[in-house]
Amino acid sequence: MIGRLLALMGVLPLVSLAAKDLSALVPEKLAIHNDAWITGIAPYRNGVIFWASDETKDGVTTSTGETVKNELLFTHFDSNAPVPLRVEGIDHIWSYERIKDGLLFFGMRASHVVLLVESRDGTRKSIPVPKEWLPDLSSCSLVRSDLPAMRIGDTFWWFEREWHHFKFEAPMPPDIQDRLRPSWIIFTHLCFQRPLLHASWSLDEGDCQLAAMDLSARKPAWKMVTGREPGDDTGIEDSGGVAILLPLGKELWTASGTDHMGMNTRELYRRDASGKWHTVIRGFGDRNEGPVSLPIANTLESINAGSDQRLLLITKSEVYRWNDGRFETLLSLPQRPEPHPSLQFLKTATVSQQGDLFVMTRSFGMLAFGERDSEWQFKQFLPRPSSIPRRVTSEMEAIAIAQEAWKAAYGEKTIAHEKPYKAVHDEGVWLVTSTPPSDGRPSAKAIIGESDGRVWSLSHRK
Predict the structure, then answer these.
(1) 260 domain-assigned
(2) Contact in structure between 399 and 69 (CB atoms under 8 Å)
């Protein structure tokens, strides 16, 4: 009872996901979801937040020609549909990053730039924004760290009671700079674990490099981590790709995976609290050289962590969790008849504070698994930004939209006692009504547009 009350408040004790293979819960037929591209999932309050947008990089182009950027959505397992996230103290969220005690939001309030930390217990704290940032906001990017951290142009900033910063004399080590070609597009990932700043550079599909810099040194400089000899625990061997950096407590995990012209690579490395590097997975084609192996057909898609800070490894069709030196299977998704197999893969996953598993997919939206009344249940969410017109084709969809609107207007407690809900389609609209137990007459009403999912009107009889 206490846990449920805390869940309603959005404040939860950490609950670990049970060691259970949830694959059998997934139905044979899943709805195909191509309306929106979903990325960047993280635990938040009693659920998760993530970005939803059109598949184009520049955002969503509406019927009026207006371009709308990504939208940050929130959902939890017991909700009917994801909704736009609203955080008190910030009007427009540009980006967010997980830190040790919660989430760091970066955006605007009125005409002011805002950095806001929301802790797991729901408390919020604003962090002052240095005036040096303001002329160059277009080059700002949050850095994964246990502290608030930001890269702005050629300067790295981190907040520890006050702001500290370091200006790079060189954006990357000379070993990497000398290998660059003018046409290459370089993707850089940063991760800060005091005092070490790690960076990975994806130079090409099969050539990614990792280096570190000790910011406590008298003259900080990049030192290569990749390119070590086998058995040298001060770094790792040449890598087909170190594309992801994930700090977990005092450990750092790096992962990569490619699937090109029939050559499959999968690599996972761990830096322990003492600074020693360990190879966990190292596979090329049909060879596995690391102590832990994956099925040959599997390419690593991403690594992430749940709210309990346990490593999740996501391949094209499975979700694994690291547990005392081995991986246990949480989910295995067999291939469906549709869409094309190249579009059927998992992207990333996380576990909420309530212990629910959320899995992002390429073509099936978000798959969610939650334990309720000692029984595991499955849900499929099909998120989309509110700016994309949503055609409502079923009674279930109309009811879900009406429920969210009623809860916002009249309160969740009021609407929860007015089941069952009914939806009737009539000339381009859906009329949705609730039924209070007292006299059986419709109480709450909503009119939903069939072509765009817009709520045309709401009413409630007290």
Answers:
(1) no
(2) no
